[in-house]
Amino acid sequence: MIAHGHRRRFLLALLLTSGFAAGPGRAQERDGWSIEPSLYLFLAGLTGTVGIGPFDFDLSSPSDAIWHINFGAMGGVRVAYGPWALNTDVLYADLGWTNGNLSGSVQELIFEPTLSYRVYSWLEPLAGVRYLRAGADVDGPLGHSHAATRGWVDPIVGVRLQAPLAESVSVNFRGDVGGFSVGSKLTWQLFPYVTWRVAKILSLEAGYRVLSIDYENGSGANRVKFDVVELGVQIGVTFHIDL
What we know:
Blueprint: H1 4-20, E1 33-52, E2 55-58, E3 66-81, E4 84-99, E5 102-117, E6 123-140, E7 143-164, E8 169-178, E9 186-199, E10 202-217, E11 224-239, E12 241-242
Antiparallel strand pairs: 1-2, 1-3, 1-11, 1-12, 3-4, 4-5, 5-6, 6-7, 7-8, 8-9, 9-10, 10-11
């Protein structure tokens, strides 16, 4: 069962996707290969529930736990030939938390390869997988315990949309949905953002990203529950290289 807040955000994802899906114009394809490496910073907050062994923490209640970022690394690369593109996104975060006499951390790795095809200049459907690996540590009066690390793969389908605002500025949207109980019960993502091409080889991006994951596996001390929505501002830089 999808929580009411999750269901409302998921419906919003479908509405935004369908809202872009209109208009003529085939894409003008470039010959040859291109590569676009990127680095970004995802300033995410968390809502939902994280379960670590026998402990559940409601992230929507500030009194339950205080979270902070221990470490994070994020980036991606896009390799394209004509209308086809292989897009790979990687995110690693180590999130620490404290709750009274308890403290610990949650580690998250996301690896997301997708294949896309530009049908029109504004429309690029995509399909791929989202691999997510999550683990946790707990320190308390009884000592240190480590919840078993879990890794799973979710199939995803989605779309990239683009609309120019000026010669060097465009508004974009990246959205997907997946899981379907293959790994997660459900996962989805929304990322509207603006791109500014400041030079031939360089562009800057800023937007607001929402990533939802509903997963639970294991029992006892090895139980891992990750029913969260990560949302916040994302800023980044992309380099454009024609081969």
